[in-house]
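Annual report, structural modelling task.

Input specification for the inosinic acid complex:
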Amino acid sequence: MANTILVGAQWGDEGKGKIIDFLTAKVDLVVRSQGGNNAGHTVIVDGTKYVLHLIPSGILRRGTMCVIGNGVVIDAVSLAEEIEGLRKQGIRVTRENLMISDCAHLTLPHHRALDRAKETAKGKGKIGTTGRGIGPTYSDKAARTGLRTGDLLQPVRFSERLKARLTEANAQLKLLGAKPLDFRMCKDEYLAAAKIITPFLGNTVVYLHNAVCAEKRMLFEGAQGTFLDIDHGTYPYVTSSNTTSGGACTGSGVPPNRIDKVVGTMKAYTTRVGEGPFPTENDGLGEFLHGLGREFGATTGRARRCGWFDAVFTRYAAIVNGIDELAVTNVDGLDTMESIKVCTAYKLGSKTIDYPPTDLDALAKCQPVYVEFPGWRKDTTAAKKWGDLPAKCRSYLQAIAKLTGAKLGIVSVGPGREQTIVL
Ligand code: IMP
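The model returned the following structure:
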């Protein structure tokens, strides 16, 4: 497989972890380039469940190198726990299979505290963040006041800088009515985590450049989804990084002309967590999917909001990411439905539009235009090839791919590696 970027084509949680794990079999390296431990990829291998937050899912395959690039924000304590947790599950995590950029920004305790305090202060107007400190970390990065993983290599300098940042943050926390943080506790916790993390640090740009020269095949695993992108998403109800394909280049240092293909992952319906517009949201579908035990977040356990497939948004995702191929997941979630709706356009006043308005007030006024498909009412979870899927299911999948404007490449009918159909 050529160098491929995998992105989420909706609001995150499209089942990227499973598709990444599947595609990883065909690559030498897996690269993470944005986001932080707000992401949660669930991968099931031989019946064992692994939940990954910062480490690329390539770690579950022997012989695959995993790289965490400069664009990722790293909560060192959480990453150290993730490494130790995987080791306890019998997964080898060494310098042979993991490298972390020394330029990646650190998410520190005051980022988490500020994230939560700001959300509380916003009240009804909150974003619904994961509370992992992502926004404040990227704010510090843009303000040029952040600390980076490389700073952990110099404990004295790190401690001085942390102290200065904590003093400022504590003043802000006080204004927000939140408890201040204790410098010593934060420092000790991060320097303990540093012992686990620093052996993995290095210049990942040079490493990846050499890998490109050696014609190694790479997979860039996206976190979150297109409409959580800080530039192209439903701002301000977004995350703070570029979740679209361009973010893979800036967040790794691998230039655009070394990328061969973009794969977009989307569910056969739509979900979103947190606040923000969601034109095809449907409480009945949500109750139905939650009743099946589906659609609870891997990171926060929150019940996801659910709605019908929205081709207006996925078409926009295809444009902004340059999606070549689609991977459609969670098809089995619709197995027992009698009929399935798909939004093909919006009515906005007297106009019919086929793109999402960037103004949220206008988006809130949009009425979805639906077409209805008959449900297939058959279990798809044992399907191994395209021909095993019920005819009505194949028609549905072909229709949503056509409406999105990209080729259907992969269909997923369950969480297991074997429940994956390649077209
Ligand atoms: P933050 O990234 O924690 O700042 O959260 C900002 C928005 O992005 C919120 O609506 C979150 O629910 C959403 N979000 C962040 N990470 C994920 C993810 O991995 N999946 C789905 N939604 C996410």
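DSSP finds twelve helices and 20 strands in the chain.
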